Amino acid sequence: MSKVYFASARVKKWKYADSMPGKLEKLLQTINLSSYIEPKEWVAVKTHFGSEGAHRIVRPVFLRKVVEAIKLVGGKPFVTDTVRIKGLDYLEVANQNGINHLSVGAPVVLADGLYGNDNIMVKAGDILGEIAVASVIYDVPAMVVCSHVKGHIQAGYAGAIKNLAMGAVSATHRHCGWKCGRGAMHAIGEGKLLWDEDKCVLCLQCQEICPLEGITFKDNKFGYDDELCWRCGRCTRVCPEDAITLPGGDDENFMKSLSEAAKAVLDTFKPNKVIYVNFLTEIQPECDCMPAAEVPVIQDIGILISDDLVAIEKASVDLLLKQKPLPASLAQDENVKDGDDVLSVLHKKPYLIQITEAENLGLGSTKYELIDIT
Prior knowledge:
Radius of gyration: 20 Å
Strand order of the largest sheet: 4-3-2-7-14-15-1-16
CATH class of the largest domain: Alpha Beta
Helix content: 25-40%
CATH architecture of the largest domain: 3-Layer(aba) Sandwich
Structural class: alpha/beta
Number of helices: 14
Number of domains: 2
Number of strands: 16
Largest sheet: 8 strands, mixed
Strand content: 15-25%
Distance between the termini: 21 Å
């Protein structure tokens, strides 16, 4: 049975050891990083840099604690993410959100280069075939995956699996474009944006949110650069009239594709070289790639750490299911009741499929022991 270590967000003693940074230090000591990291070994600290306006990410203070713990066992850490908008802009977003060398105590780099197409094709499963894993992730010998647990309009639940599947995979590839990148998951092979002129009110929110400035409205007609488009789906998410859609496969295939991509990423590591830290804090209804942060829909719960991807995801979901929806949030707007599965009600997605499929692919076990270190 896999071990998942937990530290509550509650502070019952007014001293540093009972703070969340203090508890994270204890979690990192408990799991014994020296069992996973060799002296002088480069270690990727994989996180999400957020977006301009989306500030509720894994806070820099927590990333710094992870960096310091890696250094204590002799590792050489760096903090990384894949390109979500243009590379130089994304580094500036990271800096605005407090993630820089001075704050986290380590270099901050883009895992797939400034243009987001520095990657290696890796065999995935029956749905994806192959996927473009960021070259830095492909090459680095060890990794600590720091995931902000939250909702997601397409995945329903977003934790460590999604952080690997979409966060360690490039948006595009030099030769096969979005079909080899994370767009293959978003669109499951179809990927043509459809515009309903009768529904469109020309608010231009889709044009404003496009990370590649690829949407046009010449003569009030929607158009987009099909070759440039990453199929991220942000335009469809912000359209208030559902005038833009991105057809894809069914939910089951999408969830399974996340697990396939996560496995492809993990297949580039030797056994016992990846640690997972899930932050159940400031739990958002949507992804951190959106241009704003919302009021949390679930109260802060705490931090989990494990070397089993499936176990930590299952433990995270189990903890979420015990929580009440927060008032004055999207959960209240959607009339989520006490005892409801908050994220499921918000997004109506069968998100547990990604966890059970990850188990089927041999990425871990849903049977775990939760060990509260507080």
